[in-house]
């Protein structure tokens, strides 16, 4: 069992997303694989599809996935909760992490279709 890096949901298998963390770039120049659940990857894909429409509120700070200080885009993540079932929280991701999630979504498209239908 592994935990999703964004929502913390524990699943047997997660989708690997290649992230370029600035503090690990010397040790891992090709990037580090972070495990995300299909729900979080789908949420990041939805945000990535809205990047060019300028309807997103952009903030600055540290990315929740790679830790890079840059411009951030809000991704609505569903965190499992015992009180309400699911809590919707905005996690901030940078553009490179959103592009990495997009590549993962394209690679594992069949897995996502099975999960949502």
Q: Which key terms come to mind for this protein?
A:
two-stranded antiparallel sheet, F420H2 dehydrogenase, subunit FpoO, 117 residues, alpha+beta, 3 helices, F420H2-DH_FpoO, 7 strands
Q: How would you sum up the global shape?
A: globular
Mean pLDDT over the full residue set: 86
Poorly predicted runs are none
* Helix-strand topology string: EEEEHEEEHH
Number of domains: 1
| Beta strands, count | 7
Distance between the termini: 23 Å
Helical residues, percent: 25-40%
> What's the oligomerization state?
single chain
Please describe the biggest sheet, giving its number of strands, its sense, and whether it closes into a barrel.
Answer: 3 strands, antiparallel
Annotation field: number of helices: 3
**Strand fraction:** 25-35%
Secondary structure class reads alpha+beta
With strands numbered from the N-terminus, the spatial order across the biggest sheet is: 5-6-7
Radius of gyration: 14 Å
Protein name: F420H2 dehydrogenase, subunit FpoO
Organism: Methanohalobium evestigatum (strain ATCC BAA-1072 / DSM 3721 / NBRC 107634 / OCM 161 / Z-7303)
Pfam families: FpoO
What this model shows, in words?
- The chain is α+β, with helices and mostly antiparallel strands.
- The chain has one domain (2-115).
- The chain has helices spanning 38-49, 95-107, 109-116, and strands spanning 2-3, 10-11, 15-19, 32-36, 59-62, 69-81, 85-93.
- The strands form 3 sheets. Strands 5-6-7 form a 3-stranded antiparallel beta sheet.
- A hairpin with a 6-residue loop joins strand 1 and strand 2 (10-11).
- Helix 1 packs across helix 2 (95-107).
- The longest helix has 13 residues, at 95-107.
- It is globular.
- The model has no long low-confidence stretch (mean pLDDT 86).
